Amino acid sequence: MMRSRVMLLLLAALAAGESAAAKQYSVSIPPKGGARYKEANYAIWIPDGAATLRGVIMHQHGCGEPAELAGATATFDLQWQALARKWDCALMGASLRASTACQDWSEPNNGSGDAFLRALDQFGKQSRHTELTSIPWVLWGHSGGANWVYRMFMRHPERVLVLVLRSGPVFTDELFTGSLDTPVLYNLGAKEKDDKQFGGIWEKARRLFEARRAKGGLDTWAPDPEASHDCRFGRLFVIPYIDACLAQCFADVKAAPAWLGDTETLSVSRADRYGGDRTKTACLPNEQLASFWTEFVRTGWVTDKTAPPAPSFIAGSLANARDVVLRWQADADLESGIKTFHIYRNGQLLPPYQGGAGDLFQTPNYHDTLDKPLSEMTYTDPNVPFGARYDYTVTAVNWAGLESAKHAYSVMDLGSSQSTRRR
Length: 423
Known about the structure:
It is built from eight helices and 18 strands. 25% of the residues lie in helices and 23% in strands. By secondary structure, it is of the alpha/beta class. It has helices at 2-21, 78-86, 103-106, 112-127, 144-155, 199-214, 235-250, 287-299; strands at 24-28, 37-45, 55-60, 89-98, 137-142, 160-166, 184-186, 219-221, 259-262, 268-270, 281-284, 313-318, 324-329, 340-345, 348-349, 378-381, 389-397, 409-413. It has two domains: 21-299, Rossmann fold (3-Layer(aba) Sandwich), CATH 3.40.50.1820; 313-413, Immunoglobulin-like. The strands form four sheets. The chain has an eight-stranded mixed β-sheet, sandwiched between helices. The chain has a four-stranded antiparallel β-sheet with strand order 15-14-17-18, with no helix packed on it. Strands 10-9-11 form a three-stranded antiparallel β-sheet.
């Protein structure tokens, strides 16, 4: 009876801790007037400790995303959260549905642009961050979502800090060459170029890139050589790119790019030493990103040399007479997120953690939006013998295979009573 009571109290404390830490809000914006979209659902995540938000990072899914995925799951992505937390930005996702065709929502003039603004207004009231109605945006969009963010950039150039076009724009040939000091990243799949279905996207994106670079735009061409229309691991370059751009934006530095990447030779050079045709070069904010760009456009990968943060909390409880259930909390770094967790009992590695996709926690995929059901930070160690004391440790492992430090642990005494310690 005592063991059951301790277990219930522990689970209640865990639930309260998770609720207090999470700042997730959601809202549905019904179409009004001449709006053509069918459904517009939004979610937003606000980092702890951000007294005043500095921006909104919008992650907009594409036309082909299956209905059951609901793009708003982007707000639960720990790697994107790490970027937002670093810069005191909100992270926002959407789940948009068309009445008949993708253009019903991927064209902001069909009502989805105003729906986005209405959602920000409601989120400002819900969260008491009323600055959400006026702060700038980082816009990332895939496929039809790339068309949407590009059109929003055309409508509100003064609000956009960074624009990322993942396989887009799609439905427009318009070359917007205004707001040239806004960094624009073209993150397509190189295999789209010769694809009968998506080859037109490559051509449109390349024309836009060259037109803006010819006028001095701070644009970056960074295709993934291993991808087609899928997002694959594009985030390994995209997130550090946004990070570097925000470092300049929030430092109020509007200097010329420090480095240039030749899109034909794939070599990089300091901007003040480059003597070639700059209209065919990618703008790179610093030397580190220049190194990332060289690796990414050649291999589709960016090497991460830093281990992820250690889980900050771990607790254990008894699910029944013999099964120990561990629960923990963890954050990702913005370089390569969290691939999986390792669980140890008395220093010995236990069978693999089972997340939403086998032993994986959060998996970059076709649409760069988390699949459902979302993976949980929990592990069951079955049939643990009574009469002994066990030390449990959980570590995080990123997509570079690097393991975090072992700072968090739970001590379980199954001989008489149950206790949990945190470090």
